[in-house]
Design goal:
single chain, Elongation Factor Tu (Ef-tu), domain 3, 17 strands, 354 residues, 31% strand, globular, 6-stranded antiparallel barrel, Gyrase A, domain 2, alpha+beta
Length: 354
Amino acid sequence: MPVWFEGVIPEHNAVRSAVGIFDTSHMGRLLVSGPDAEALLDRLVTNDISRLGPMEGLYTVTCNEHGGIKDDFIIYRLAEDQFFVVPNASNREKDLNWLLEHAKKSDVEVKDVSDDIAMMAIQGPKAEKTLQKIASEPLREIRRFKCKEMTLGKYKALVARTGYTGEDGFEAYLWDTPLSNPSKALDLWEEILSAGKEFGIKPCGLGARDSLRLEAGLSLYGNDIDEETNPFEARLGFVVKLKKRHAFVGREALARVNKEEAERLLVGIRMLDKGIPRHGYEIWKRDRKIGHVTSGGFSPTLNVGIALAYVAREHSELDTEVEIKIRERLAKGKIVKSHPFYDETQYGFKRVKT
């Protein structure tokens, strides 16, 4: 996927107002199958896998022994003993090896199918109307974090109502489409573009993907979360189920953090002065450095600079004014609600339908 096709801002705006399509085949795709598949995954991730019914998915993280986040991903249950795991591209090999290491004494097969399945994301308020034109099943029946096998155009696919933009939309997995022979994927890509033409669909690149997920307050692995970050300070405590049936790797460490409270927290910052916050920029309160930016940029929707940042807990309250060191000057900003930054009645999958 290129950084952009037409440009970051027009692609970003297309997704917020209508529909855009992303080639997300750089992501990982792993199949975990067998009688012990559920138990294996439940011991490696923080969320409760047992709650998943057939063709349902959930967001979770997997941690190291110290409670640091090894990766975040979505897991779908395709059948009673078969799961589909979609890790971040940068962690594909690490996650595969982590699963294989723990599967040695279990009745489980772990298979990397990343290079055999094309992946696309169709996102935006017109995503359903676009994709429905070529879908064999009614998409309205697929609720968020549910999935269904169907035909898209001429091809069999798994379609999930998920995404990384904050908007309504779908992620489509095209079976039996090796990256070495992507003709089916290219054909489907063009068919989706044709279906969305009346809505102004645009092919979108990595730039818009990043600006959209930042506005939605969604973490990026390697920036906002990593193995030195625990889920509670990253405000991902909702995916940590300390009392589920299976103890998971990192549980004891996270139980201590939960009890003691995190010393720093991930917050959203909206700029009051002109300036664009970037990864690594220092955050100051009076004459004290209190944190740093992990993700930042210009928000096309809000027309202002925004950032995700870690700050000391005592400075994490909403409406706290801070200063971000942009080059050699300090620019004012304010801590705001960041999940998402925008008004949910106007934008995103919760928007008021008209």
